[in-house]
């Protein structure tokens, strides 16, 4: 009887736990789906950019303050990768006045 108790408590008799799926990886199917989606978005953005380039009024404007060197209004910068869209900058607005120094720092 004591022998049975030892066998029950030994680690060799413990039921195996199911392997946990790594959440940091995506499946090949998901990767292909994301790549197709990103390719479609990139093509649309490139076509829109070509159309906007034909008329300077689509991308030029007057400065709000003549003392500014540059003004950014609602600036957005996205990067399209095989694992999705990275929003590097989303909706930032700022001005750089004359005689001032500005540094932009972030992860690279």
Overview of this protein structure:
This protein is of the alpha+beta class and 108 residues long. The protein has a domain at 26-97. The chain is 31% helix and 26% strand. It contains 2 helices and 2 strands. The protein starts with a helix and ends in an 11-residue tail after the last strand.
Distance N terminus to C terminus? 65 Å
Report the β-strand fraction as a percent range: 25-35%
Shape descriptor: elongated
Annotation field: number of helices = 2
Structural class: alpha+beta
Major β-sheet annotation: 2 strands, antiparallel
Rounded mean pLDDT score: 78
The proportion of residues forming helix, as a percent range, comes to 25-40%
Low-confidence stretches: none
* Element-by-element helix/strand order: HHEE
Strand tally is: 2
Report the radius of gyration as a whole number of Å.
Answer: 28 Å
Strand order, sheet with most strands: 1-2
Please provide a brief summary of the model:
The chain has helices at residues 2-9, 28-52, and strands at residues 68-81, 84-97. With 108 residues, the protein is α+β, with helices and mostly antiparallel strands. It has a domain at 26-97.
What topology emerges from the helices and strands here?
Elements: H1 2-9, H2 28-52, E1 68-81, E2 84-97
Antiparallel strand pairs: 1-2
What tags apply to this protein structure?
108 residues; alpha+beta; 2 helices
